[in-house]
Amino acid sequence: MNYLLKLSYDGTNYCGFQVQPNGRSVAQTFQDGLEAVLGCRPDIKGCSRTDAGVHALGFMLNFHADTRIPAAKLPLALADADTKNAALEAMAVALIAAQDKILDANKQDVENARGRVSDVMLDRLALTPGRLTDMAKGMREVAALPDPVGAVLRKIVRPNGLLIEKTAVPMGVIAIIYESRPNVTSDAAALAIKAGSACILRCGRDAWASCHAIVEALRAGLRRGRLPECAVSLIEDTSHASANELMTADGLVDLLIPRGGTGLIRACVENATVPCIQTGTGICHVYVDKAADLEMAVDIVENAKTSRPSVCNAEEALLVHRDVAAQFLPMLKARLVDARAAAGITPVELHLDARAAAIIDGVPAAPQDFDTEYLDYKLSVAVVDDVDAAITHIAKHSTHHSEAIVTADAAAAQRFTTCVDSAAVY
């Protein structure tokens, strides 16, 4: 039986309760699980705050009575590429088969969040049949990738004939903490399974019902693919306590990946006792060079800012060469502000430095604006002297996620892509 547990804190004790109406206590549930693992039935008297770190794992995870998440490590590590790819296909099929259930859960999440979060965040939270199809497509694209497990990264033959190989192996159990973005659930699960690892997922509270429905579908696919369903597990508790437990879950978590805002990433880096990959926020720039096709540049900026402003690779800052600023900025305002307002669409709020403000109307940019990830219909705009000034500005303010140059000058493009130190440079 799959025991679904939640954890609450009443100021003195952590209190567990079962979602399933089978009448068994938390202590009995723990005893069932530990007996299956240890071969003996331990005595569990309670769950005080001081030992919450021990007990919270059982409280907060989708806990299977006869197996635990670490038990999924070996079957996944041993699974060959065909087995993993077949499981990913089964997971994608199960995701679409559960479409009605997932969309119903998502509707509940969206209604609960309405009025508490911005419309942009509601869009990020919302699922549609098309988005579910894209999620399934993404899982199939992961399945089509080469199998990373077993790849020989380096090979050395010693003078005595001894062969030494550096080989890629699975991480084991990967914990991923992310915000209220249901699509990340399937993305993270697919990548972990492909890499031969189990995953523990902890989503934002606004997306819990959606993510729970998605995980249930993915687990059904894993069962059909003959891989352990506990290889994909979702934290039931979305409080800060659950995030803190994952950060310090030594012996359970082999790698922690925070995918969220600055506060979450900083908390993980500062407090995690398990290995942690430091990700970053997305303060992404577009630089419009003097040699740019300005109509093309407007199209690019419009797409980069307004198509999905809530995602981490949305444009947050625009840099414009001084030689074309007087022509380009009015074009920009006409498209992103005036035309959208006339059409009844949310206009983009332009935060302008002094040079840009001398050309068009907007909000005077505060010093912190160029260091802000808006995730909204807002855009910081600055006029720069040349490509080197743009590179300097990006080096000072970027989070090294994604940057782009719009130019017909091959030399300027080469200098920009060579000098800008970001994960993706276009």
Shape: globular
Task: Report the radius of gyration as a whole number of Å.
Answer: 25 Å
Largest sheet: 7 strands, parallel
End-to-end distance, in Å? Answer: 50 Å
Instruction: Give the mean pLDDT.
Output: 84
**Unreliable runs, pLDDT <50, ≥5 residues?**
1-23, 44-67
Percent strand equals 15-25%
Helix fraction bin: 40-55%
- Count all strands and give the number: 16
Discrete helix count: 16
Oligomer: single chain
The strands making up the biggest β-sheet line up spatially as 13-12-14-11-10-15-16
Alpha-beta content class? alpha/beta
Question: Brief description of this entry?
Answer:
By secondary structure, this protein is an alpha/beta fold.
Report on the structure:
This protein has 426 residues and is of the alpha/beta class. It has helices spanning 26-38, 52-60, 73-78, 81-97, 99-113, 119-125, 129-143, 183-194, 208-224, 240-247, 262-271, 294-306, 322-342, 354-357, 387-397, 410-419, and strands at residues 2-9, 14-18, 62-64, 152-157, 163-167, 173-178, 198-202, 232-234, 255-259, 284-288, 315-321, 349-352, 363-364, 378-384, 402-406, 424-425. Strands 13-12-14-11-10-15-16 form a 7-stranded parallel beta sheet. A 4-stranded parallel beta sheet has the order 8-7-6-9, with helices on both faces. Strands 2-1-3 form a 3-stranded antiparallel beta sheet. Helix 9 (208-224) links the parallel strand 7 (198-202) and strand 8.
